[in-house]
Structures are given as structure tokens and as C-alpha cells.
Amino acid sequence: MLAASMIASAAGCGASSGSDSTQAAAVETTEGAVTAKESAGVSGTFTGAAEGFGGEVTVTLTIEDGILTDVTAEGADETEDVGGRALELMPQTMTAANSVEVDGVSGATVTSNAILEAAAQALDASGGVLEKQEIAVEQHMKPGTYTGEAYGKWKEGTIEGERFGSPAIIRPTKVEVTVDETSILSVEVTDCSDTPGFIEPCIERIPAAVVEQQSVAVDAVTGATLTSQAILTGITQALNEAGADLAGFSQVAAASQESEEYTVDLVIVGAGAAGTMAAVEAMEAGIDTLVLEKCGKLGGTSVCSTGFAAIQSEQQKAAGTDTYTVESAFQELMDFCKWRSNAALVYNVLEESGAVADKIQSYWDQTDNPGVTTAGVTAHNTGKGTDKFNVLYENIIEPSGIPVMLETTAKSLIVDDGRVTGVEAEKQDGTSVTVHAKYVLVCTGGFGGNDEMLIEYLGNDNFYLNGLSTNVGDGINMCLEAGASLSDEISPHLAEFCSNKNVDFYAGYMKFINQAGFLALDPSGERFVNEEFFVTQALSYGASALRRVGYAYIIFTQDQLDAMVENGLWGVLSEETIESLKLRERIIVPSYYTLNDEMEAALAAGEAWKADSLEELGEAIGFEDQSIYQNAISDYLTVLETGEDPLFGKRADMMPDLDQGAYYAVKVISAIDGTYNGIRVNANMQALDQDYQPIEGLYVAGQDSGGFFSYPYYEGVGWTQGYAWTSGDIAAKHVISQLQQ
Questions:
Q1: Residues 6+ apart with CB under 8 A from 737
Q2: Which of 186, 373, 401, 442 shows the greatest Cβ crowding within 10 Å of its Cβ?
Q3: Is 385 left (phi over 0), alpha (psi -120 to 50) or beta?
Q4: What is the pLDDT of residue 545?
Q5: CB atoms within 10 A of CB 417
Q6: Is 536 exposed, middle or buried (0-12, 13-18, 19+ CB in 10 A)?
């Protein structure tokens, strides 16, 4: 049994789930169409369709004499573990309420909105009006304890979970639900393989909320949606087994009408690396501080990071890796970006980074978390996960008197006569929060989870997000509304690996398919990059080349697929080549044993193709102009034959052959950890307005702030995290200096 599991039999919390606007829906009537609005007496079956998360969602209403007798919702492309709950629960609630105006399912906003829009359009097509009624369901369950299970964040067979502290063999999340004839008596989570740090708030809050509200329509824990949904799906399964009418257990709690007000010196929005380091400085200075965090856990995207970059720390000196100076690092970074970054900011961050690493390590040394385990020339390795943050808040920051309000989302900045004087926020249960502050520090992690902002600022949303979907640009948008200006280098934080939007390559080894030197073609069928860059300069040249073309096709043979399944990269590259590339250890493991299953999934989803010849492969992919593809193949076969690549200069030892089929092509897109560069700041992390002047009272740090980076990303690891820790420190120190004047 899970050590952290709990049996819920008392108080919990819950809130309503708001419904955003959705796209227009297409509607058809299958029978019983009417020509004029009628308040009653309408009968027939009416269907609407709206765009959901993955594709079209259809809703069919069956109406008899103005009574909604049946509702079905279908969406083949919606995610089973998130949108699937909305497809199951909302139709039952609509039928019981005799209304298409019901609450959506928390954590499944897009699917919920599609269901609501499609249902509303179907009703409009009927010409009738439904009279909403109170949901009154008489339960007749068989008393007892029932079980349910579902996979959450990590699915069966994934290799990624173990890197975040989950078991090597992923098991489904399991729950036990005890009921009598009419009520849910208790809920217990008995097993969960999801990420430590994410699962605890779900186990603590969701079972208690289900029991208290007598509902499976409770709010998901913000930032842990997949784990939340797995628990709720398991509870739903158990209730079905008990014979429950889910319409009676699907009501959403009313939003709180309460309000809270605080007055502090500094309010920090975001508890990732930047916010945490700022809180440490504020703690040491003894200034009155409050931290707001929208998620139900601490650490932000930084929990996905294995470490951070810093220069001349004590850890480096002790390890003998302190040969890299601030001056040499500054010159290297500025040369790399062609001086497009803010030189004063870059130097300030580099100069402070070593002391920041030492300070945060001094606090980790007071806990049972080791903090930095190894220190390289720049990288300070801490390992992934939330524990490195939890121990700081639990043992250091909160005991000092700095409170943290989790699941509290900042909505807007308070501006008084051009000066930022606080934050308006909202708790998960709907409670409004007003924080009056002399200074505000915004560090909410960019907008990698906001497709609309990706399209607006980056040109498209053709990315696979490996970071947090809760990073949706809240902080950036608040600052813009307050008069701040954007950096002109706003960019995606590209990862070195490839991915796919419709098949989860990150769960296994397919994400490494661009690391072997295989031929890569752009959407037209033309070669576009020296494929060795996907390894040798993966974060800059390789990643930016893939982003430029939008998506690419990686081409290889059956023999090479089999060799990678058996021996990983050792099957297609020589030992000497692998040694020269200095690859990360997880890329050169002995076997890519998940590849066959991943390939089958990609083929089934239409994201991969297989053919007996290269010519047939091009036809299967469906290039618009096959001659472009054929010429590219012909030219590349010549490169393989001669070992010389006159156009791209690819090294001969990274040219896996294409001598014998069968042949595969896999469609890949850029993976991103999020975005970097946002609000323009000066070297003190003060937000700048359109005239490059500081906005009084407003500071921005971490990936919400702009100036340290340019595009493409610096070729090296840990810079975003190093910048986050250090920029938060710089901002807090400047706030303290202002308060002390």
C-alpha cells in the first residue's frame, strides 16, 4: 500500500470549473427538425459537432416532448484519461438536469467546452427550449468496497517515469471506494506510480473532496492534472461497479464568494527556481513577503530540470572544475548570440551565479536533500523532482514566516498612478485574493502551455511541450497590461530531442531517433540540415533547423530499427563515434526496447510509414511533388556511396546506410521545455516600459523575463535554470536595497 495514501472521510475542498469560449460548431439534425422556436413539445434527435482537444467532438441530444431523455458525446481523438471523463460525465449530468448548460469537468476544459458548444448548437437546431431542473437522483448502490484503476502521468511501459523518481515498472493508479446504498463513505488511493511531489497533493485533496462533496466532479490539482484524472477515473470505475447513477455524483460545488486581503513588502508570483531564490533572499533580509503559486505543488518547470549553470562556485572549486571564468563565459555567450542579448544583464547574472549556487547549497545542507551532487565546468547537477524545493519551503522558508499560497492564480497587477502596487488573484475554490505590496516579482515560467500565444509570438504551435502545461503566459500578460514591453528575442526553449504531437515519443526511445545521423527531410521532401547537428550541436543548430521547417521525416531501414531495439545507438554507430560525441548516458543505453511498440503506434496513428522501397516510401508519405523527394534521395545515396557531403558537410561516420529495405519514415516535430525571453528587463530585473524605462514596483525574473538569451539557445546545459535561480536572487536583492533606502 502506498505510504502516502489516505482514507478520506471528512473535509476536503472543491470549486466550480469555468467554461471558456469555444469555436463554432457544425450542426445537423437527424430527425424531427422544427422551423420555429417552441418552448415545449419538441421531439427528435439532434447532433452538433465542435472542435475539441484532439479533433471533432459530437453531441447527440434525444428530446421527447421537450424532455431531454438521452445525451451522448463522442470524441475519438480526445485524450482518454482527461477528455474521456468529460465525455462520460457531462452527458449524464445534462440528462439529469434537462439542460445543456452544465459545468465542465475540471482539468478537461477544452473537451468540456466542445461538449457544451456542440450541445448548445444541437439544441438550437431543434428549435426548442429546455426547462432546467434540479438534479435529483435516487441512488441504490450495493454497499461494499470497490476498486478502480487508471494510468495517470506515466503510462504502461514508459521509460521516462524512473528519471523523475517513479518506479522502473509503471503500475496504474489504484483506488478503493467504500459506499453504502446512497453515499460515498471513503476513498483510498492504494497505489500510484506517478511522479513524487506531484502525487502527494492529489492524494491529500481529491479523495477528501470526493467524500465531502459526494461528487467525482471535483477540481483537479492544478499542475497535476493527469494524476488527478487517474484518481477520479478510478473512483468513477468503482462507483459504476457499485451500481451508482453517476448523474447523482457529478455535480460541481458552487464557487466561493469569499475574499481575502493582504499587505506585504514583496509579493512573489511563482514558486519555481526564480521565486524560490527570491524568497530565500527576502527571508534573510527579514522583509514581509508572500508567495503565490498557481499549482498545487512547488518548483514550477524547474522540477523537470536536472541542474543549473553557475560560474566559480565553491562546489566547482572543490571538484577542480572552476577553470571557466566569468569573463570567458561572458565572451563566449555574447559571441554566440552576436551581442543580441543584454550585455549588462548577462554579465550581472554570470557574476552572481556562483554565489547563488553556494547560498542555495548552504540551505540544502540543512536538509536531507543533497542539493548539488556533482559540479562540472558550468553544470550543477541536482536531479529532477520536487523534493529539492519542498525541503526548502518546509524546513527553511515557511518556518521563517514567509507563507506560500498554493493553487492561487494571479489574475492582474494593481497599478496606481503608473506604479505597480499589488496583485489580484483567485484561489482554486473561487476565493478572491487581493495583495497590496510595495514591490511585485513575477516569475511564472513563460507560455509553453498556451497554443494561442505560441502562434502569436512564435508563428505556430507545432511543438511538443515537455515542460508544464500550466505555464500559459499569465505573468507576461499581466505585465503587458501594466505597460511593460516584450523582448525582441522571445523564443521557444527547444530541446535536443524530437517528438510528435499525436504519439508520445517521449515515453520511450523514439525521441532519440534524430540522434543517429539518419536522413532528415523537410515537408516538401528535401534535405534541410547536416543531420549530425542533431547530436553535435543539438540545442542550437540541430534544434533550430527542425523548428524552421516545422516538421521533418526521419528515414531509416528495418535492419537499423532492429539493431536499435537490440543494441540502442551501438547498433547503428561505431563505438569510436559514440565516444567522440560525448552523448548523455541515457541515449546510449544497451537496448531501445520500446521502439517496436512505438513504431506500431506511430504507424497506426499515421505518423510513420513503411514501404519495401524508397520510392514507395515517398508515395506512402504523400509528398506533393515526388520529384523533390526523389532528387533528395538520389543525392543522398551518392553521399552515402562516396562518404562525402559537399553541400552539408556531414561526417562520414554518421552516415547510416540505406542499402536494403524495408524502409521507415517517422514524422517528428520540435520538443520544447517551454519558452524563454518575455518581458524586457534591465540588469536589476526591473520590468521596462515601451520607452525602456523601469516600471516602478515591478520586477520580472526567470523565463518570464527577457534579455539574457537570444535565439538559438546557448549551446550548453543548465543556462535556463541557472538564469532562473540567479535572476530571482538579483531581483530580490534590488527590492531589498530599495526598501532599505
A1: none
A2: 442
A3: left
A4: 97
A5: 6
A6: middle
